[in-house]
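User: Last request for today: this protein with fe (ii) ion, please.
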Amino acid sequence: MSESASVKHLRTSPDTLGIEWSDGTSSEFASLWLRDNLSEDRDAHSGQRLIDIADLPQDPKIQSAVTLNGAIRIEWEAESRAASFDIRWLRANSETRAGRPAERRPKFWLEGASLDAACDFAWARFSDAKTDRPLRARWLSRLLRDGIAFLSEVPAADAGILEAAALTGRVSETNYGMVFDVRSVAQPENLAYSDLGLGLHTDNPYREPVPGFQVLHVLIASPDGGESIFGDGLAIAEHLRTTSPEAFAVLTRTAVPFLYRSKDAELYAERPLIQLTCDGEVSAVHYNSRSIAPLHLAAREAHPFYSAYRRFAALLRDPRFHLKFRLRDGDLVVFDNQRTLHGRTAFSSAKFPRHLRGCYLTRDSVYSEAAMLRREFPTDLST
Ligand SMILES: [Fe+2]
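Assistant: Here's the final one, the structure of the complex with fe (ii) ion:
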C-alpha cells in the first residue's frame, strides 16, 4: 500500500468514513476517532493534545464528507465547526496499513547456525559510523530489525565503548557503574566474571526496567575458547508457540522472580519468561537461570511450569539456533537485551586472558536515535 495513493471514492455513514483508495485498497475511520484527531485540538508548537475524551461529544455523527484540495472536509451533525483531514495523514494512520516502520517489525533469524555473522548482519567501521550519518541510519535500522549489529575497529582506549555507545543511544548507569568489565576474577559476584561457559541468556531481568540494549567491546579476544553465541529469542519463542502451544502459554502467564544480591545492591523483579504485547505478539524474552529466585508456585502449578521451562531451555540449547563465532580485538556488538540472547563457550584465562567491556543502553534512546536519523535519511531496508 503506497502512501501516495489518492482517493477514488468516499463512503460515509453517520458513524464511519470509508475511503476507497486508487490502488484498490480501502480504509474505514470511526467518526469518534476522527473527532478525537482534529489538528486544531493540538498545540501548534508541541503537537501535544489539548483535550481529552471528556471534552469530546459522546457520539459525533458525520453529516457529510467531501474531498477538497488534498484533504477531506467533514461536517458534523451537531457542530457548526467543520473538520479537515489531510489525505496523506489519513493514509498514514489507516488501521489497515502496516503502520510500523520496518525497524518496528523484527526480522526473525531462528536458525542462527545457518548464518554467517560477518555477512548476514550489519557491520560498520567505528570511524565510518561516526562520520557517515546515512550509514549510521541504516546500521541502526538493521540493529532494530535484526536485534543485533556490529562495529569494528573501535579504539581500545578505556572510553572507546562509551564513544561507540553514544552513536547508538544513552548509557544506563547501574550498580556496576557506567561500564562493566567482563573478565575472570577470583570469587566473582557474577559468574560472567569467571572462565565458565555461559548458556544463552538475557542480562539482568531483576532490574526495572530490564536493560534495553547491551554493548560489548572486545579489548582482548581469546584465541582459544570464549566464542560468542547469540540466539533470536523472539524467533525461538515463536517456535515454542508453534511446537508446544501449552508450554508457550504457561511461560507467558507465570511470574518468575529474579534476584541479584551483592554487598552493594539488592535487585528484585518478577516477570514472565516470555512477555507478550496487547496483540499477543512476543515483545520480550527474559531468560537468566542464574538469577531465578524460588518461584511462588502452588504445588499443582509446579509441574506445568517446569515442563514448559524445560522445553524452552532445550530449545535455547539447540545448536541449530546458535549464531556462534569469535569476535576479534576491537569488535563491538550491540544487541537487544530483551530479544537477543547471548552466551559464550568456556575459556582459560590462565592461558589466554580474555577481556570484554560492556554497558547497557536505555531502550527508548536507541529507538529515538534511529528515528531521528530516519527523519533526515529515510531508510528502506528492502534494498
Ligand atoms: Fe550476560
